[in-house]
């Protein structure tokens, strides 16, 4: 499946103040679930070249949590495709960043909790929820290594959150401890090697695993993203 965000809208940018500087927040507009969505971000990383540029700049680079990543775009489309199935569902988004997948879920009637450990990311996430006129979202600062949430969720979302091996044990505990009976974990990832290792380990441990492939970006520079649907061992 192919999806291409539109070019940034030509409006006066909002600003994001950080400890390393003051940055403009750009807009991307996407067509999802029969309407247009606006996602504020500090940079759009939609191709391999974009990612290489972003990761190789100086140490004072923009916080990665407020960048628009292709995995978030793909996951938002996957969520939108589920339509009425999300009405009244309890949804947890991990590492929400700019918040696009959770915002779409809330627009479909889900009760969403969006979490991130970065206050800056939570600020942009909240702005995006307000900008798109979506309520029914609770915003929480949360660290996976010090996770305290004991609630159960019908759907756990995460876009490009599997890249660090050190976080895998924490994520497994969250999946096992916070997923409701009959629930699903949806994770989008651009097929990073570290991410695939965790997914393979989960599958070996009895989790069901299904894959949908998305292509994000312009045709000549498109980025492949997998959306992995995980169901717990029976």
Could you characterize what this model shows?
The chain is of the alpha/beta class and 234 residues long. It has a single domain, classed as 3-Layer(aba) Sandwich (Rossmann fold), CATH 3.40.50. Helix content is 27%, strand content 33%. It is built from six helices and eleven strands. Strands 1-10-11-9-8-5-6-7 form an eight-stranded mixed β-sheet. The chain has a three-stranded antiparallel β-sheet with strand order 2-3-4. Helix 2 packs parallel to helix 3. The longest helix is centred in the middle third of the chain and has 13 residues. The protein starts with a strand and ends with a strand. About 2% of the residues have low confidence.
Task: Write a brief caption for the model.
With 234 residues, the chain is α/β, with parallel strands linked by helices. Helices cover 27% and strands 33% of the residues. Strand 10 and strand 11 form a beta hairpin.
Number of helices: 6
Task: Give the termini separation.
Answer: 30 Å
CATH architecture: 3-Layer(aba) Sandwich
Could you say what the CATH topology is called? Rossmann fold
**SSE-based structural type:** alpha/beta
What is the element layout, followed by pairings?
Elements: E1 2-3, E2 14-18, E3 21-32, E4 35-41, H1 48-55, H2 70-80, E5 90-94, H3 100-107, E6 111-116, H4 119-131, E7 137-141, E8 153-159, H5 168-178, E9 179-189, H6 193-204, E10 208-216, E11 223-231
Parallel strand pairs: 1-10, 5-6, 5-8, 6-7, 8-9
Antiparallel strand pairs: 2-3, 3-4, 9-11, 10-11
Helix pairs in contact: 2-3
């Amino acid at each position: 499946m192919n999806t291409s965000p539109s070019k940034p809208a030509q409006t006066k940018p909002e600003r994001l103040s950080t400890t390393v500087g003051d940055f403009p927040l750009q807009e991307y507009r996407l067509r999802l679930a029969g309407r247009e969505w606006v996602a504020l971000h500090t940079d759009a990383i939609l191709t391999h070249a974009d990612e290489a540029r972003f990761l190789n700049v100086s140490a004072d680079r923009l916080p990665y949590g407020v960048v628009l990543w292709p995995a978030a775009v793909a996951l938002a489309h996957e969520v939108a495709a589920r339509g009425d199935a999300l009405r009244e569902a309890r949804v947890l988004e991990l590492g929400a960043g700019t918040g696009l997948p959770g915002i779409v879920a809330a627009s479909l009637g889900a009760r969403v909790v969006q979490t991130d450990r970065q206050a800056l990311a939570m600020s942009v996430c909240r702005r995006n929820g307000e900008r798109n006129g979506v309520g029914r979202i609770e915003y929480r600062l949360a660290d996976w290594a010090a996770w305290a949430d004991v609630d159960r969720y019908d759907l756990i979302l995460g876009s490009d959150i599997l890249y660090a091996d050190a976080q895998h044990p924490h994520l497994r505990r969250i999946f096992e401890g916070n997923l409701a009976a009959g629930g699903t974990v949806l994770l989008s990832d651009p097929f990073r090697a570290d991410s695939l290792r965790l997914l393979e380990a989960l599958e070996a441990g009895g989790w069901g695993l299904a894959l949908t492939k998305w292509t994000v970006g312009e045709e000549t520079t498109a980025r492949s993203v997998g959306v992995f649907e995980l169901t717990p061992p029976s």
